[in-house]
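Slide 14.
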Amino acid sequence: MDTGMLWFDNDPRTDLQTKILKASQYYQNKYGVNPNLCFVHPSMLAEQMKQVKTIEIRSSKKVLPYHLWLGISNGKLIAA
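Slide 15: predicted structure.
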């Protein structure tokens, strides 16, 4: 993913899956396509979540806590 949408959500009452679904719905409404890749900070992954619906979840220390980076995978690997 070369470009994407950064989403901030620090609501402690909302689980990660719900946050990702909410952000992906906004992404789809704004850009007209569904994201298929989401990067989150490793501290946000309490369990080993790999996918939410059709969105692959990856952790990266480059993404700040409480942020989601959503977009379309371009097939390139990105170092965590």
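Speaker note: DSSP finds one helix and five strands in the chain.
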